């Protein structure tokens, strides 16, 4: 097998970049495997590089996305349609939310364990004609994501505090961070209005450096998990924020009736005006309609043997089923 390490030098402020490259050379040379390190210079480059390599040969290949969720998205997008290639992940970003779906993700930095990885199928979330790995969101949390991208450039703010600081900074604009539009689940109109504080369409469970927005989601079940929060007063939002972060917003009995949680094969969001969305943490401006579908078993995912998917909580699945049947 050929091993390609796709390095994003900007991920996570680049603090572990050179140490990781040294470790890759040391282990791969010792193991005498065929490998190459490719350092990206611009957004979108990873997708094109992966496609080019996959088209050049039918030999088994594995591409390790060494960066944040955005880098994983780019590499995975290039792998669609190539069954002889696999996706590996070395999380070098700030949030690293997709790998929170796995146990013992510290092993993702073990190059020996990566080379001996086990392969499983993984779904991708498709929005119009593009792909996402983890989660797409819009509304207040998207505005926070935009602020977080600015915060991460600051040499004075630790990366781990970038999201918390972003929330505090955007609270003053809370009333204007509203999604205006209609939402459809499998062709059925969502009837709780057309103004929302947040809309989340998920393949993985986490975003925003650990916010557990879609606790019933699985990256290989062929289903989109959607969490829609109504437009609500600031104090109500502050009240539910702790549950939303912990992933208990589906099971907590004291939660006010302010959200919908649906599982579907297809979702549509029809915007009344051009709006920003956050795709695996990266901001895109869209207008009109965005159609979300799931591509079942879209790519081969290689993970160290210890990094098994975290089992879903039966209580959460039971609660999600109740939300599914709720009008």
- What letter string, H or E per element, gives the SSE order? EHEHEHEHEEEHHEEEEHEEEEEH
| Total of DSSP H or I helical runs spanning 4+ residues | 8
Low-confidence runs of at least 5 consecutive residues: none
CATH class of the largest domain: Mainly Beta
Q: How many domains make up the coordinates?
A: 2
The CATH architecture of the largest domain is Sandwich
Round the mean pLDDT to the nearest integer and report it.
Answer: 92
Mind telling me the C-alpha Rg?
A: 20 Å
Q: Which percent range describes the beta-strand content? A: 25-35%
Q: Which fold name corresponds to the CATH topology of the largest domain?
A: Tumour Suppressor Smad4
**Helix percentage range:** 25-40%
Major sheet size, sense and barrel closure: 16 strands, mixed
Approximate shape? globular
Query: What structural category do the secondary elements indicate?
Result: alpha+beta
State the total count of DSSP E strands. Answer: 16
N-end to C-end Cα span? 51 Å
């Amino acid at each position: 097998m050929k091993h390609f390490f796709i390095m994003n030098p900007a991920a996570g402020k680049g603090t572990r970049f050179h140490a990781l490259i040294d470790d890759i050379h040391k282990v791969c040379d010792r193991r005498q495997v065929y490998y190459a390190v490719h350092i990206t210079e611009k957004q979108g480059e990873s997708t094109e590089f992966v496609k080019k390599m996959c088209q050049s040969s039918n030999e088994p290949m594995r591409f390790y996305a060494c960066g944040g969720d955005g880098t994983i998205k780019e590499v995975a997008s290039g792998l669609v349609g190539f069954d002889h290639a696999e996706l590996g992940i070395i999380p070098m970003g700030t949030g690293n939310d997709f790998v929170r779906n796995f146990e013992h993700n510290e092993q993702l930095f073990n190059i020996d364990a990566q080379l001996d990885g086990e392969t499983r199928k993984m779904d991708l979330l498709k929005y119009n004609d593009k792909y996402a790995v983890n989660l797409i969101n819009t509304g207040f949390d998207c505005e926070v994501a935009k602020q977080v991208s600015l915060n991460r450039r600051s040499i004075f703010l630790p990366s781990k505090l970038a999201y918390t600081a972003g929330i505090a900074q955007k609270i003053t604009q809370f009333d204007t961070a509203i999604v205006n539009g209609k939402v459809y689940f499998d062709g059925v109109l969502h009837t709780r209005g057309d103004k929302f504080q947040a809309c989340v369409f998920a393949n993985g469970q986490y975003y925003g450096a650990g916010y557990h927005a879609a606790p019933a989601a699985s990256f290989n079940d062929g289903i989109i998990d959607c969490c829609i929060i109504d437009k609500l007063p600031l104090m109500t939002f502050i009240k539910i924020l702790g549950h939303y972060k912990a992933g208990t917003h589906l099971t907590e009995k004291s939660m006010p009736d302010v959200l919908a949680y649906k599982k579907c094969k297809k979702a549509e969001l029809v915007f009344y005006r051009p709006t920003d969305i956050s795709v695996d943490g990266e901001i895109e401006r869209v207008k009109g309609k965005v159609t979300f579908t799931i591509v079942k078993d879209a790519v081969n995912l290689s993970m160290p043997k210890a990094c098994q998917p975290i089992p879903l909580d039966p209580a959460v699945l039971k609660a999600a089923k109740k939300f599914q049947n709720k009008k």
